[in-house]
Amino acid sequence: MSWSRVCVALTLPAALALWACSRGPDFIARDEPWRADEERACLGAGLVRESAFVEARASLGGPSVCGALRPFAVAAAARGSVHLRPPALLRCPMVPAVDHWVERVVSPAARHYLGVPVVELKVAASYSCRAMNHVHGARLSEHGHANAVDISAFVLADGRMVAIKSGWWGAMAERAFLRAVHGGACHIFTTVLGPDYDANHRDHFHLDLARHGRDGEGRICK
Ligand SMILES: [Zn+2]
Question: How far is the CA of 127 from the centre of ligand 1 (A)?
């Protein structure tokens, strides 16, 4: 996506913003300094360590508002025991959040409800410079900030795969497992959307660390 096609409305004077938008916006982007502040704090605190599964990448997005300062390609979580396929491209704060969710929520839930460990998460999307739900002219998605990941299925150690599309209303054990990992995600991520939210999410969980509400402390769990 070229810069000229991006509508950056809120940091520009109104007339200039109108001009920029009139060129055919793909998305609306806000000026949100907290994003870089939060990312720098995460990087400075060393919350993400590079390993065989976590690799630092060059900044994303170029001149556009998309991207991250120092994203990471995450190929596995929970000390390498659970693969992410394909690897997820995530900004710093998302990396420990995903790791925490997989290790403390997904893995125990798989053992409890399905009787076997989970070995892989199917990543339907991570970084993508686009509007929310791919709707032309909508707000820039958290995916555009590498601040979101979409998970469509869980692969178990015995080879079974629990897909959200079929399992959300599938066998009782799969239903219970998927609701446990969805509900558990709500304590870790600030936005968790699944099949009960809307038709766009019938086949995946969307997890992100957006700020919601006036104080930025709100959460969305649906
Ligand atoms: Zn998503």
Answer: 9
